[in-house]
Description:
By secondary structure, the protein is of the alpha/beta class. The chain is 29% helix and 27% strand. It has 2 domains: 4-193, Rossmann fold (3-Layer(aba) Sandwich); 200-311. The strands form 2 sheets. An 8-stranded mixed sheet has the order 1-4-5-3-2-6-7-8, sandwiched between helices. Strands 10-9-11-12-13-14 form a 6-stranded mixed sheet, covered by helices on one side. The longest helix is centred in the N-terminal third of the chain and has 17 residues, at 58-74. The chain is elongated. The model has no long low-confidence stretch (mean pLDDT 91).
Amino acid sequence: MHSVFESLPGIEVPVGGIKSSLARMWESPSMASRRAPEDSARAMQMNYVLHFGFATDAADAVTQFETIKEFSQRYPCRVVVLCPLKPDDPAEEMRAKVYGECFLGKSKGDTRCVEFVVLSYPMSSRRFLENQVSICLSTDLPTYYWVHRFSDSARLADYDFLLNHAKRVVFDTAIVPTDAGSYPWPKPDAIRDLVEARLLPVRQSLGQFLSGFAPEKLVQGLRQVTLYHRERYGSEARVLLEWFRARLVKCGMAADCGAVVQPSVAKGIDDFAVEFRYDDDRYFKWRADLTARHAEFAADLGQGRVELTTAMHLLAPAAALSEATFF
């Protein structure tokens, strides 16, 4: 069974020779098909550190590697991939790989490149990691930090040099500890959630439909908001319900109003179903089937029934990473 480090592409190089190996990589015959036509084409826009937690297996790591590689086709970057070994792993030394690839942009002269440095390290070498990562990063570029499947918020907090230095810290609250969203991170304003990012098309569609009604009409006599969801979308439901709560408060609903209830797992429905209930016969209903990429709206807030059918989807992984990184 391959380790995370061994499953990822690249040429293994001495840890002390990473910089020189990156420079030589583009001259290697094995890189001929990926070689940039000019040095200027390899200009980077940012650094990205992708940190795999202990819960990441080899197949999962390859999937996330492909996601950030796709991201880099639009935003050329130097990526440093951290592959910590579990405490019971007998390995004693840090290992490194380098990998590079170029992609054609919108025109023949638009070539965009990405460079990867993959580091495998035992926890006994953790104290040397900050120095090694610093050497790998381009010091004149902003740094972003994506942590995938970490299992302990307090342990991740030990990587304070990255948490403090990064312009954004990205993780997916669907696959990390439940306290990750409330943990006292050193730069809480830098934290971005991939769950919220991939919900962007859903939030946009709901917001566009509901904006057709006067804000006071949405909250007047509102008794209950119920969000049903399939079990696998529990994290998305949590984030979406909080979005509803915040928007309804802006429309005039009291912040301590009990109208918004907790998400409810339900079987035999589409992936999501939302219902606003009022103290009269007014209503708002929304259903979405993300597999079929389909959603239906129905509402009557006192001015007649309004119905709409529209396409609906979650953002793809690379697009969600872009949303979380920059917004």
